[in-house]
Specification:
Blueprint lengths: L6 E2 L5 E3 L2 E2 H8 L3 E5 H16 L5 E6 L8 H7 L3 E4 L2 H9 L7 E3 L6 H10 L3 E4 L2 H11 L6 E8 L21 E2 L4 H10 L4 E7 L10 H21 L5 E3 L17 H18 L6 E4 L3 H4 L3 E13 L3 E6 L8 H5 L5 E3 L9 E6 L7 E8 L7 E4 L20 E6 L2 E6 L4 H5 L11
Parallel strand pairs: 4-20, 5-6, 5-13, 6-7, 7-8, 8-9, 9-10, 9-11, 11-12, 12-13, 15-17
Antiparallel strand pairs: 1-2, 2-3, 4-14, 14-15, 14-19, 16-19, 17-18, 20-21
């Protein structure tokens, strides 16, 4: 499975963005995250274009939690998208990169006073309120604010989607958002409406990630428009914005077939306009927050294969120079991947190997990968690692986190430099009483 600008070049090597992966590994080392700029831009344009062609007031925000560094921000801005951040660190990154604050929304289920003040001081476009406690904090912050604070409310539509249990977020029993059925969401909206320092902008939901069907998206639209009707009927307030989150899946395996964007847009916009018309509502902004769908397939992680261990009659392990510190998703979510031996990409995959990380854990990256027969020194390219890999990387076993390289039209630029062991230890402190 080749994705984005990937191809097998004349040398029989995997190439991404016009750059030979073998050359990238020699130049930048491994493990190495490679991000395909052209594919990111293409995904942004196609997502926004599919929905805006069918609904003039469609907006797309990139969910920065999927992959965020300073260099991604200008790409997102240039493609006309907004940006969703979920922490003070993500907000700081976006502001440091010069992303327009008015196009930023701040999420989070337990925002600190410092995070909320940073957002208010920066005049972000939206703070997505998750609970009453945040309103208590914002009441105090609003005393010193120079402008009214724009707020949307995250609600739980009560949908349990068909995805891994650890990435479901919209069901009634969720740490995120406020319930519709129990009146909690409506209660928070009433409080916002009666507070002069606040501006009610709309409602938000997110039901889960890696969704490979359209039914869940359509169902949440209908539920959310029904809630907009209730808000209007009870409070008189007409929401300016309906944010239905993200969650569209990608191809981790060749058999994964997420809905085509045009088909998804047809169904979502059809359900939206039908429901709005049925309830006599106008045309709010339709906002969405894809993350994985925009960057997931644009990312490839390159490793060097080391030890190969054959257990007769059981399996062959091929060990790589990374693992759960640069990709914890197989351990967290039972995530699955496909891989290519990048230096022999033209060779037919005819061998089953289990790709093992080098951490002091079971640390299996791919069980039973079909690849060319591996040899020590080969380069293994793992596909669809653009989302939640760099973002979740750690220093487990005191590993230094890999570099990130952005490739485009034959150019390769480091956008996050590789950590050194010195940097891994530089924040350590030894109390004087332990010094000898």
């Amino acid at each position: 499975m080749l994705l984005g600008t990937q191809r097998v070049n004349e040398r029989g090597h995997l190439e991404i963005g016009g750059c030979d992966v073998v050359d990238l590994a020699r130049r930048f080392g491994t493990p190495l995250y490679v991000m395909d700029e052209a594919q990111i831009r293409k995904s942004c344009r196609e997502y926004l274009g599919a929905f805006r062609a069918r609904y003039e007031k469609a907006e797309v925000s990139y969910a920065g939690k999927a992959f965020l560094c300073k260099a991604i921000c200008p790409i997102i801005e240039q493609e006309g998208l907004h940006l969703d951040v979920a922490s003070g660190g993500e907000l700081f990154t976006a502001l440091a990169a010069g992303f327009p604050p008015g196009r930023i929304a701040l999420h989070g289920n337990n925002k600190s006073p410092e995070e909320l003040k940073m957002a208010v001081d920066a005049r972000v476009g939206r703070i997505i309120v998750d609970n009453e406690y945040e309103l208590d904090l914002l009441d105090r912050i609003a005393v010193e604010a120079t402008e009214r604070i724009p707020l949307s409310v995250r609600v739980k539509p009560g949908i349990d989607p068909h995805t891994h249990r650890r990435i479901r977020t919209g069901q009634a029993d969720s740490k995120f958002g406020l319930g519709i059925d129990d009146g909690a969401a409506l209660g928070v909206i009433r409080r916002i409406l009666r507070t002069p320092e606040f501006v009610f902008r709309g409602v938000h939901c997110h039901v889960g990630s890696q969704l490979l069907d359209t039914e869940t998206h359509v169902e949440k639209v209908r539920i959310m428009v029904d809630f907009l009707r209730d808000v209007r009927d009870v409070t008189g307030a007409v929401a300016e914005e309906l944010n239905i989150g993200g969650g569209l899946g990608i191809r981790y395996l060749e058999e994964h077939q997420p809905p085509a964007l045009n088909a998804l847009a047809d169904e979502v916009i059809g359900a939206l306009t039908d429901a709005l018309d049925r309830h006599g509502l106008g045309r709010p902004v339709l906002a969405q927050e894809p993350g994985r769908a925009l960057v997931g397939e644009a990312g490839t992680t390159v490793y060097t294969i080391g030890a190969i261990k054959e257990i007769p009659g059981i399996r062959t392990y091929a060990a790589i120079d990374g693992g759960m510190s640069d990709n914890p998703r197989p351990q967290l979510y039972d995530a699955v991947y496909e891989a290519i031996v990048a230096n022999r990409a033209a060779q037919r995959p005819n061998f089953v190997a289990t790709i093992a990380g080098k951490h002091c854990e079971t640390d299996i990256l791919i069980w039973d990968a079909l690849i060319a027969r591996p040899e020590a020194g080969d380069l293994l390219a793992v596909q669809s690692t653009g989302a939640y890999n760099f973002a979740m990387a750690s220093n487990y076993n005191r590993f230094a986190r890999p570099a990130v390289v952005l490739v485009n039209d034959g150019a390769a630029d480091v956008i996050v430099r590789r950590e050194t062991y010195q940097e891994v230890t530089e924040r350590d402190e030894v109390p004087e009483r332990l010094r000898t």
